[in-house]
Amino acid sequence: MEGAAHGRSPALPASLLLVLAIVAGCATGAAEPRALPPAPAAAPDAPTATTAAPPPVPELPGGGTTLFPGRRMVALYGRPGSAAMGVLGEQGIERSVQRAQRLAQEYRPLTEDTVVPAFEIVTTVASSSPGADGDYSVESRVADLVPWVDAAAAAGIYVVLDLQPGRSDFLAQAKLYADLLARPNVGLALDPEWRLGPGQMHRVQVGSVDAAEVDRVSGWLADLTRDHGLPQKLLMLHQFRTAMIRNRAGLVTDRDELSVVIHADGFGTSAEKAETWAALHEASPAGITWGWKNFVDEDRPMYTPAQTLAVGPTTPAFVSYQ
What we know:
Layout lengths: L1 H5 L7 H18 L39 E8 L14 H15 L6 E13 L10 E3 L2 H14 L2 E6 L6 H6 L2 H4 L4 E5 L18 E2 H17 L5 E7 L5 E2 L11 E7 L5 H12 L7 E6 L10 H5 L8 E4 L1
Parallel strand pairs: 1-2, 1-11, 2-4, 4-5, 5-7, 6-8, 7-9, 9-10, 10-11
Antiparallel strand pairs: 2-3
């Protein structure tokens, strides 16, 4: 028994066996590195911001987006339904369209420029009574003008809204017709003859306006034109006396959105009209275009189309008939 005891390996203590097992386990772990977590998926590209192209600028009657040079307008002047205020009011819409087109045709053989028929609509009318608002001016309803503007647009006719503000001011009245002025074939005319100061009355005094008031209108109209993406818009200033536009030399005329026209609308003999035309050209502001009015009943005699385009030193780009 004792010899048999010497033939067996001595038993290892349990504690030592535990240590060896731990060491073997560590060695096995070192031989097999842990797998790395999968790489995160690449983030999708952020969407590229895109800006929609602005809509194209609508064209003017006769084509293009700039009024002058290269274009002449020939207009019927007046108030719808009132024959006493000019030839526009002598007939209804359809016949006015036809008459304006015939009148424009008389000018086409005389110039290489595009000749466009036009309506100049007296939109606010000087009044001898103050009215409910006390401004001595009667304002047309927009709804009454829309059929004229619609018919004009369909026929390729430009429209000018003419203001006679009395004791109101030009900007306040222009804003009444902002919806119409937001159309590409509609411009604006200011008539200082009918712009009254405090205590003044129509046909007792000839009205006038300061250049600063005109500039407020032109600034507002230029903003409206730009904000609505419109072609260049006409801003016309009626004048037959130099005193009608005070500080005229300082007028702002370089707004790209507008073409500023000084419109000579005196009547009389040929000599009187030529004298007025020449006087208005003296010390005139830079950057303006010129307009001329023929009075069917009052001129003695009325200029022919050829005579109208032959006046100097500049040729009128806007011709109206009252």
